[in-house]
Amino acid sequence: MPEMYEVIENVVLAEKVNRYRIYAPDIAKRRRAGQFIILRIDVDGERIPLTIADADPEAGTLTLVVQEVGKTTARMTRLKLGERFLDVVGPLGAPTHIEKFGTVAVIGGGIGIAPAHPIAQALLEAGNRVVSILGARTQSLIIMEEEMRRASDEVLVCTDDGSYGTHGLVTDILKERIESEGKPDLVFAIGPVIMMKFVCKLTAEYDIPTVVSLNPIMVDGTGMCGGCRVSVGGKSKFACVEGPEFDGHQVDFEELIKRQAFYREQEKESYECFLAECREKNTK
Predict the structure, then answer these.
(1) Hey, which residues does 131 pair with through a beta bridge?
(2) pTM for the whole thing?
(3) CB 95 within 8 A of CB 35
(4) Is the dihedral of CA 88, 262, 18, 244 positive or negative?
């Protein structure tokens, strides 16, 4: 029997993108689509939020798909099988509202494909027609395509450089789809903030309800620190307890983009120092 929060799997999916399976049976049994966890590697580590990409209640495991963007995610890539996280807290956040809407377009951009996966799964199980649109800069960054095909009625793929699927952006695919097949009843968009912003701009033109999943700066995950504040409909919302999903047409994306950049220099410095330390250890 694995130990609590033990790393069962750590494999590379794409450049600087890894898939982890972690033994966390209580969370695996209770999690629902759209929810996330906050984990810490050790007593000196920072707490980072990560959306649950999948779960196996029988095996007691969570699947996380994580992009290496800073010190903590870089440390995660170096974890070996059998090593453990100090703590994994969850499931956190409000689960996705699932019902039979009709036809739903689920848009995943880059690493956003991972959190889009359980939402597509749940929507399909509820009887919706799920059309998933996957986008990335290049073919190697299209992740979880087979999983999304199993969770969807149809999958459309595009890349910025045209190396795979349609040459273009997810908004190009969505617009063409609307004009050729008609409007979906609902759109989910998960990915880079700028991508979600322009998806919402497009769907507003067609008056299509749109839900986005936000991952702002987050510390405690209980609504107490206020770090994850976002403006929705002119009101402050805490993404950790009132989200992470919101009406995309009400989100102040310009403010969100600025807030996401608050600690960019400190994050970059910490990451570079960690990589330098790793290089130094490898040369000894």
Answers:
(1) 105, 154
(2) 0.92
(3) yes
(4) positive
